[in-house]
What does this fold into?
Amino acid sequence: AQKITQTQPGMFVQEKEAVTLDCTYDTSDPSYGLFWYKQPSSGEMIFLIYQGSYDQQNATEGRYSLNFQKARKSANLVISASQLGDSAMYFCAMREVDNFNKFYFGSGTKLNVKP
Amino acid sequence: ETGVTQSPTHLIKTRGQQVTLRCSSQSGHNTVSWYQQALGQGPQFIFQYYREEENGRGNFPPRFSGLQFPNYSSELNVNALELDDSALYLCASKAGGGRNTEAFFGQGTRLTVV
It folds into this structure.
């Protein structure tokens, strides 16, 4: 079964507007971490935000926030005030407790910010 | 700047050849994992090393092998290259064995097999 599902292959957003990128996950492990990475065309994975499964509050990092709904197993990324430089691929990923550095990635969402 | 460097950045090999990809991690990052990212897909876990021992492997054949060295560098070796091995290969390193710490990715090596 897919561990991470991203159902939006591509998204468009107007500059300065907010956008939500969807992510659902599947795990039976009670302890896990959820991550969002940005991948520009250069290929490097840039860490954006992290949410632990036991964290009570939604994570925020600058313009990025994670809408964590544990019961629904969703971890959507919200980007506020989009900028042209936000155009890139975005990947949702999960790491389970016994796997020190093993990430399960979704298929990604290509975000295009329009001027 | 993640402090993780991969080399080479691009590589073209012929089917049947062998290739070695390298990853240099930050000091203290004793956990490294490797991923294969085919065009248009998310990265797929190949294997990970912790303190120079392989301690996790994804669904990849034995011709994918690795090494981790005491100086926080590591290698991914692929034997008998196939056309489907063409992909971006990423390494990710992190400090310690704890789970709730960020992993830092390199910029990747783009391998083309012809």
User: Anything to note?
Assistant: The longest strand of chain B covers residues 87-94. Residues 86 and 112 of chain B are 5 Å apart (CA to CA).
